[in-house]
């Protein structure tokens, strides 16, 4: 940390968010105190600030979060930082085309996470020679020694096999580190890994290289340990005693990158181009909208996990290849890279794959919320309507997952017009946005001029406030089943209201409240919205309740009881119950 | 597939579940038709069966699931099968101590998944020489070429660096494959990777090695392609035309492994040993219960992600080291190995780490449901009550995640007695079970003799059916806050009922119904239970609604409005609203 912050990195200590500055990611977030100490050495924090560590009133939290000006991405769930750093380095090299470099400190314990190996493969594939990984091989995990302990040779072979230039150094030796960073700057077309053999708690009396000290304060031993450390400092440093505070200053960056503010400024070049009744899959509308946004803003980018011909993100790849990052089948890294790309609003990323496969990166998405990311996610092939591929490919848990993410916005557009507007809104909405798209073609039900907003649903069918007997809330494929059910019911003189909520989070509470008051009432989100409004209600849920089977979409909607006929029968049953 | 199923593997074609048989995992599940064809060649399926592929009435689904007798684990979400196979191989070598071997076919596209590298590291660390990975390097992904294409040398270096014996062969050459499998059998203390250079759609006219054929039927070209294939067969096989149907027979297994039926048979050796009022963390009670179950059943095993000294699974490691698998910081592999260990009820696994980090493996857990697994998951350090470590370590999404998993059972025990019973119940419950545990100590509130059941809550405080004005449903740390709030309210002559639901899924609908009817009501699960019972209701939710900060547990419960005082004020506000 001392070599990085005082000699190697180029930045302005009083302006951590400067876009030209070198970036630093502490993937092993539990080493936060070392990060805070570094920013104290360079003058941004005071020694008094350091003493507020882990207090409620202080942003010097247990693990770093972007509540601090010098933290771009939150870390603490291990093995994610290198993907974030790779995203920043990708943007630096290919989009900003700037000279800043990205440094990432990774722990040896977290190097067991597959996400790290996905990131290593990504970084070498894209020749990120502006990225340096510093691997802290201190031999000890939380509860026991790491699998490879101090086998530096194996670490080196693995990194080299993954396409990196890999150097082994004594991580406590300043000169070896300086030389390694200098070599890293000279290596072209490959990222560099500096593999540091270190001792955990080095020089700490009775603690160095010992187990059972992970994350523990020194307690009653602190006085003795500090006295011993100070004595060692005197011996080793030929007159230089104690801190370097104020004596070494980092070099300033090359000023070749300008600040950006993208969110709030991105519009589709023209209204969606569909005709009422035209059959269009929402996944195709997503691809169209992404390509159209990409046309008007060269910072709108797409990330894909080798499903671009199914999600239709390929439309952006084909029209704006420089704004498209193929991440191959490695969703954790894809999400981490997306979050890294979104840092400091350098880009507005749309990360897409099958909705089911976004579950692969739930931890990364969750950490994205802690990172205050503006990264957008699009999950296609929702629900059983994807058909014969079977349950492994069907997104059934995606809404629950994204609803649970703090501060998220969850779009579930039902037609192509609504989908294009969802993409436009997501690009301009702070926090994590998720858009759920579907595989089958459905008719366009909204005019190109229809206005959409987050948290505003649409009444797509109503016979009038006095005659609607019940409200059906449905999205996507089930909205069309609900509309068919409404026809069947109308033929029996039963009028129902059908609501398309557009966003599942937030739910349009006012529209639902009105519907409940005027009539009587999608699962968890609907109930929560009603309860927040203090409205007593019952909700009859219709959803997949078992592991689905392969079959045609029509067969599956029928088998699992969410087709028009099932809705028709349910409504009649509910009305009978109410009347009795 | 032909070499594996007709020459290499030892099994009985008419008894696929025989425990002594070699096991096969098709990690690239989209190649399911090849698997179904193999079982047709050996006589378990008929050619007519094959023609039901992907139909609703057929179990020959788009991707393999254990609805088929010869499938142990569902595949189709990529990069997971090798972990499952490693779990089976671990059990084979160390627990069954039997001679069966485990074969896993992995695609090159899915080799980009970090999960694969976690599994490779795990298998070599544990010297699983009964495990063979067959890597199908066919160069093409779904939407474009793979990153490494046919660079066999890099694949070999990577596998070797991860500790495997790695051989490169022509994947279409029967003799090379036979020789490689023979070598694999001779390699000791290391797993073997057979890296097969193949051509996608080999020998298919106009399709071989071409893009845009992934997952597509031949359509109008089928007649021509089949004619060409048949012509090629005649040329190459010196008189052997077409199928080997019935002519080659696999060798039978060495009969050294007996069937097991564990679920339903596992009991704690004695009631939980806690005194009322004793302060015990539920995570500690989990550790105690796991060790106690492990004592009476040597097939109860624990899997850890280097958090065992925090989750207290270390209690099993210390008392029964042979029943404990340290998986290091690689949660995706840990879950996949757990699912592999649970196959055919060879073991009853408990996979534990911080609840927050189980989100890392949501896709694997979701696939566990499709796999009909009986693997159990335990997530500790739930909610803000973990304190100063900050939001990255706090499980806030775990309940939403596990509730969304098909067929899951979700336990949220509030004291040590309930926790021990939850562990015992989970061991005996089919499907995925999740137990949420907490970090802080709380008083024991149940007698050692208290009976617990899935879906049965407890009324922990009530003044009587006529006097309770409102019901509070709470679990874990918030149950104790609710009990304190109830005291504060009683001092103002407001009586409330307090319910501990014990399981969040299923929720005790009858108990809630009674409470709503007698009084007036944790979030989504409560509302769903009430709506399923057709009871009109309002639910006032109290939960974390923003990314929490570091701080002491008490400070955080206060700051985010879920402590006793906040509950006290909420109850008064709700009662005022009802009365007005």
Automatic annotation (TrEMBL), chains A, B:
<dbReference type="InterPro" id="IPR005475">
    <property type="entry name" value="Transketolase-like_Pyr-bd"/>
</dbReference>
<dbReference type="Pfam" id="PF00456">
    <property type="entry name" value="Transketolase_N"/>
</dbReference>
<dbReference type="Pfam" id="PF02779">
    <property type="entry name" value="Transket_pyr"/>
</dbReference>
<keyword id="KW-0808">Transferase</keyword>
<dbReference type="GO" id="GO:0046872">
    <property type="term" value="F:metal ion binding"/>
</dbReference>
<feature type="domain" description="Transketolase-like pyrimidine-binding">
    <location>
        <begin position="280"/>
        <end position="444"/>
    </location>
</feature>
<dbReference type="Pfam" id="PF02780">
    <property type="entry name" value="Transketolase_C"/>
</dbReference>
<dbReference type="GO" id="GO:0004802">
    <property type="term" value="F:transketolase activity"/>
</dbReference>
<dbReference type="InterPro" id="IPR029061">
    <property type="entry name" value="THDP-binding"/>
</dbReference>
<comment type="similarity">
    <text>Belongs to the transketolase family.</text>
</comment>
<dbReference type="InterPro" id="IPR020826">
    <property type="entry name" value="Transketolase_BS"/>
</dbReference>
<dbReference type="InterPro" id="IPR009014">
    <property type="entry name" value="Transketo_C/PFOR_II"/>
</dbReference>
<dbReference type="InterPro" id="IPR051424">
    <property type="entry name" value="Transketolase-like"/>
</dbReference>
<comment type="subunit">
    <text>Homodimer.</text>
</comment>
<keyword id="KW-0786">Thiamine pyrophosphate</keyword>
<dbReference type="GO" id="GO:0005737">
    <property type="term" value="C:cytoplasm"/>
</dbReference>
<dbReference type="InterPro" id="IPR005474">
    <property type="entry name" value="Transketolase_N"/>
</dbReference>
<dbReference type="GO" id="GO:0030976">
    <property type="term" value="F:thiamine pyrophosphate binding"/>
</dbReference>
<keyword id="KW-0460">Magnesium</keyword>
<protein>
    <recommendedName>
        <fullName>transketolase</fullName>
        <ecNumber>2.2.1.1</ecNumber>
    </recommendedName>
</protein>
<keyword id="KW-0479">Metal-binding</keyword>
<keyword id="KW-0106">Calcium</keyword>
<dbReference type="InterPro" id="IPR033248">
    <property type="entry name" value="Transketolase_C"/>
</dbReference>
């Amino acid at each position: 940390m001392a070599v990085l912050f005082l000699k190697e990195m180029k930045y302005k200590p009083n302006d951590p968010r400067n876009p030209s500055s070198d970036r630093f990611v502490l993937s092993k977030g539990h080493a936060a105190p070392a990060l805070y100490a570094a920013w104290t050495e360079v003058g941004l924090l005071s020694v008094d600030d350091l003493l507020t560590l882990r207090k409620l009133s202080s942003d010097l939290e247990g693990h770093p979060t972007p509540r601090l000006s010098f933290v771009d991405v939150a870390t603490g769930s291990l093995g994610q930082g290198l993907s974030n750093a790779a995203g920043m380095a990708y943007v630096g090299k290919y989009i900003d085309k700037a000279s800043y470099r990205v440094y990432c400190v990774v722990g040896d314990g977290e190097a067991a996470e597959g996400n790290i190996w996905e990131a290593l493969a990504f970084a070498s594939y894209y020749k990120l020679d502006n990225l340096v990984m510093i691997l802290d091989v201190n031999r000890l995990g939380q509860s026991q020694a790491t699998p490879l302990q101090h086998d530096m040779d194996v670490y080196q072979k693995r990194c080299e096999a993954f396409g990196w230039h890999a150097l082994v150094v004594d991580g406590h030796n300043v000169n070896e580190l300086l030389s390694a960073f200098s070599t890293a700057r000279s290596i072209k077309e490959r990222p560099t890994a500096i593999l540091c053999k270190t001792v955990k708690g080095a020089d700490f009396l009775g603690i160095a290289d010992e187990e059972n000290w992970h994350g523990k304060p020194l307690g009653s031993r602190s006085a003795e340990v500090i006295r011993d450390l100070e004595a060692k400092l005197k011996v080793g440093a030929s007159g230089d005693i104690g801190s370097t505070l104020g004596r070494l200053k980092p070099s300033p960056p090359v000023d070749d990158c300008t600040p950006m503010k993208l969110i709030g400024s991105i519009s589709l070049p023209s209204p969606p181009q569909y005709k009422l009744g035209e059959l269009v899959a929402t996944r195709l509308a997503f691809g169209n909208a992404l390509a159209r946004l990409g046309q008007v803003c060269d910072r709108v980018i797409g990330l894909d996990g080798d499903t671009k011909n199914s999600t239709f993100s390929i439309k952006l790849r084909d029209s704006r290849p420089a704004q498209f990052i193929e991440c191959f089948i490695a969703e954790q890294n894809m999400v981490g890279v997306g979050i890294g790309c979104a840092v400091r609003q350098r880009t507005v990323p749309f990360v897409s794959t099958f909705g089911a496969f976004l579950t692969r990166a739930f931890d990364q998405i969750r950490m994205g919320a802690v990172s205050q990311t503006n990264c957008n996610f699009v999950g296609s092939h929702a629900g059983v309507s994807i058909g014969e591929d079977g349950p492994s490919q069907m997104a059934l848990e995606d809404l629950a997952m994204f609803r649970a993410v703090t501060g998220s916005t969850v779009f579930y557009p039902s037609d192509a017009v609504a989908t294009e507007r969802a993409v436009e809104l997501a690009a301009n909405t702070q926090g994590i946005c998720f858009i759920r798209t579907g595989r089958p073609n459905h008719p366009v039900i909204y005019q190109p001029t229809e206005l959409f907003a987050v948290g505003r649903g649409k009444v797509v069918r109503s016979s009038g406030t006095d005659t609607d007997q019940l409200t059906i809330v449905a999205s996507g494929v089930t909205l069309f089943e609900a509309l068919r059910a409404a026809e069947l019911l109308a033929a029996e003189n039963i009028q129902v209201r059908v609501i398309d909520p557009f966003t599942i989070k937030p739910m349009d509470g006012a529209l639902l409240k009105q519907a409940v008051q005027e009539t009587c009432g999608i699962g968890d989100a609907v109930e929560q919205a009603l309860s927040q409004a203090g409205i007593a209600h019952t909700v009859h849920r219709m959803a997949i309740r078992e592991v689905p089977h392969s079959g045609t979409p029509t067969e599956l909607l029928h088998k699992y009881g969410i087709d028009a006929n099932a809705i028709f029968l349910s409504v009649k049953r509910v009305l009978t119950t109410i009347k009795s």
